[in-house]
Design a protein that fits this description.
Number of helices: 15
Strand order of the largest sheet: 12-11-8-13-16-17-19-20
CATH superfamily of the largest domain: CoaB-like
CATH class of the largest domain: Alpha Beta
Structural class: alpha/beta
Number of strands: 21
CATH topology of the largest domain: Rossmann fold
Strand content: 15-25%
Radius of gyration: 28 Å
Length: 463
Amino acid sequence: MTTGKFRYALDAREEEQPAPARTPSRRLAGRLVALGACGSIAAYKAVELVRLLRLEGAEVVVMLTPAATQFVSPLTLAALSRHAVETDVLGLLPDQRIGHIVVADSADAIVVAPATARWLGAMANGIASDAVTAACLATSAPVVFCPAMDGDMWTHPATRSNVERLQRDFRYVLVPPDSGELASGQSGIGRLAELPQIVDAVVAAIGARPVRAPGAAARPPEVPAPRDQDLEGRTIVISAGGTAEPIDPVRFIGNRSTGRMGVAIAEAALARGASVTIVAGRVEVPLPAAARVVRAETTAAMRDAVLDAVLAGHADALIMAAAVADFRPRQAADTKLVRGGSLTLELEPTEDILAEVGSRAAALDPRPVIVGFAAETGSLDRAPDKLRRKGADLLVANDVAEPGSGFGTETNRVAILSADGTRDDLPLLTKREVAERLLDRVTATLDARAPQGHTGATTREAR
């Protein structure tokens, strides 16, 4: 016979059992949900909220107020959401679109969790001082807001007035805070609502509305998944952009290179843990802030910068992605040339940077990995001979006359030729994907030259 005391113990154990996990029904499949997190300790829960929204099938893009970045890392949220995190109301996407506007125009719903008292006041009065508020002001999508704050802040008349205005005038959906232990150590109302409840509110707010931006081009671009740090401790030198050989103080001989390919390689190498030096000619895209940048617009300046970075700097690899001029005016004018009759320029060959580095690096032990690029038109038949003459380990060749594979495009179709005679013809890929494939080859070559294993320091430094 079970006593009352023992029966109570059984009941208590039963109550302590966790609730069975809810199987996501993918109620948000095909939807883009924007998650805005504000500067509350509850911002750490945004990490789990991203996961729950993705389990429901949503594509998620995250926005953080400046204060929220002190509580949760943008890198963590970017890795989970596969999108760059919007933290700056003036921030631009890689394609130069305004980040928060793209979010506002393409999101099927915006959920602000946690929403602080400061955000409620700013939003209720239309003060767009951060990316979260600005996106909410610019969108016609439903907005769900989930307050989290100290209990006295939540019950203050100013907070209550702001909440009422958001509901009444803006038709925003409130997910009220729960009661429980607060960050202050007190107990009361003010805790962020349970995350499944927030997900349910987002689903209900979207309802049967049509998908606002079904095409990927209208949405914020995805970022590559985090890679293993297989280049940690390695030093990679990358040249990018085109060179400009002066005719006079105003004019120059140049080319159509924008630097996109070189920058894509630099960003990929940084993401894999490398220390990156970019020797930059004329570029039309932003250079990654984490890289060391050496400006070198002429071929002669680029030669000096590359040799210094590779030889004196003990680089593990050189990737010559820059479009270096083959010729320059033998004599540049000191003053601007005046328009008149015909103009004849006498040209002379420029320095062959790749061949010189390949020759001089041969004496190093271990020899750095040397990668060249060949921009051809119509055929890649000359690429194997160029690989041999330059003394490179790898050569990336592409036909710049092919649509989607020329200068200034977001994509590239390349063949990667190796000194061992192998050739890998890649399909049309984004330049970041090409960069990853190339770095896979560079990493494998580096590892092969350090059979004792890579330990996080360059082999020559270790010696």
